[in-house]
Amino acid sequence: MNKFPKLERLNYFNGRILSADDFNLEQAYFIDKQRLHNRYLHGWGVVAGLDVSIMGGKVHVEPGVAIDCAGNEIYLRGCVDIAVLKGASECYVVVEYCEIQTTPIPVIGSTGDVGQTVVVNARIQEDCKVYLAALNPNLKHEKIGPGTCGCGKPHPLAIAHLQKGARGWKLQKCGRRAA
């Protein structure tokens, strides 16, 4: 990702014909502006919630919001429970921004192979994945500290570090903003 993307927006005027490319450009403009705002004014890390606890062999993650190094807003809308892998002695609880294409609709006037109607997804849903990883995804990149603008690249964000000891699991929050 370029440090500062080229920001270009549409110039509207009466009689102008708009295409899908024009609307995509308009969306990209506002998405890029928001990501820059998030990165340089707020920094990366957990914004609110995303509390992690462990009981038995399950990791429990509460709903919350984080910002990744690219400025993507990561929303976890509901609780998530993840089973710890048997035999694991250390892992990271990770959240990752993702987009899911939804709402398939037929494209008017186009056909695919053998006269089949072409279907495309009409919407993009912003979502996130929550999982356990063996390595900290934030370990070796620039501007590591929470509250900095981050490295500018979209990647998973570690929110907790788990280590198994003689008395069970020890949980340490990470990827957090300084209080």
User: What can be said about the biggest beta sheet?
Assistant: 4 strands, antiparallel
- N-to-C SSE string, H for helix and E for strand: HEEEEEEEEEE
Helix content: 10-25%
Number of E strands: 10
What is the topological layout?
Layout: H1 20-42, E1 45-49, E2 52-55, E3 58-61, E4 64-67, E5 73-76, E6 80-83, E7 90-111, E8 117-133, E9 157-165, E10 168-173
Antiparallel strand pairs: 1-4, 2-3, 3-6, 4-5, 7-8, 7-9, 9-10
Q: Explain this structure to me?
A:
The chain has one domain (20-173). It has 1 helix and 10 strands, in the order H-E-E-E-E-E-E-E-E-E-E. The chain has one helix at 20-42, and strands spanning 45-49, 52-55, 58-61, 64-67, 73-76, 80-83, 90-111, 117-133, 157-165, 168-173. It has a 4-stranded antiparallel sheet with strand order 8-7-9-10, with no helix packed on it. It has a 3-stranded antiparallel sheet with strand order 1-4-5. The protein has a 3-stranded antiparallel sheet with strand order 2-3-6, with no helix packed on it. The longest helix has 23 residues, at 20-42.
